[in-house]
């Protein structure tokens, strides 16, 4: 599991900026430090639509303070499981506390795609992939497809 950061200093701000650059290049709408091999509780997001100005968020030590009972079903993808998608039900709204790039404590109430994406990224900090939320059958289909891609890549 990833470790909390003691303080958001220059090194953590550089990590946050590197994560955003990697996320935009992928492209993706979120990225967590463990996805690039860094075991720290840091994540970035930008759910702005194409054509809208960028709206990056950079979070360290995010904590879910509260989550709604109501769930939202969303077809999730994951940069760690290329080309695999699955419908995941997560709390439709959540209140999150985190440290911003200035090391200030902030709280946001997220809903819709932002709530889904933050929870997906917090899962990465805890070593959990979206497939863990699927039925065993759907998870195994995805994992078998990925194993096949890996086998084909090994002989290519
Ligand atoms: O954390 C990740 O693996 C990134 C992932 C985030 C995410 C997507 C959907 C629901 C929850 C969390 C992605 O960004 S996958 C790529 C993606 O969704 C996307 C890519 C380009 C344009 C729009 C979306
Ligand atoms: Zn992911």
* Helix content class: 25-40%
Mean pLDDT: 97
Taking strands numbered 1, 2, ... along the chain, how are they ordered across the largest sheet? 1-2-3-6-7
- Major sheet description: 5 strands, antiparallel
Number of helices: 3
Class derived from helix and strand content: alpha+beta
Number of E-type strands: 7
- What is Rg? 16 Å
Order of helices and strands: HEEEEEEEHH
Task: Show unreliable segments.
Answer: none
> CA-to-CA gap between the ends?
34 Å
- Bulk shape: globular
- Percent of residues in beta strands: 25-35%
Bound molecules: ligand K1U, zinc ion
Describe the model:
The chain is of the alpha+beta class and 156 residues long. It contains three helices and seven strands. It has helices spanning 10-25, 112-125, 136-155; strands at residues 30-32, 42-45, 57-67, 71-76, 86-91, 93-99, 105-111. The chain is globular, with a radius of gyration of 16 Å. The protein starts with 9 loop residues before the first helix and ends with a helix. The model has no long low-confidence stretch (mean pLDDT 97). The structure holds ligand K1U and zinc ion (ZN). Zinc ion (ZN) binds at residues 78-80, 120, 124.
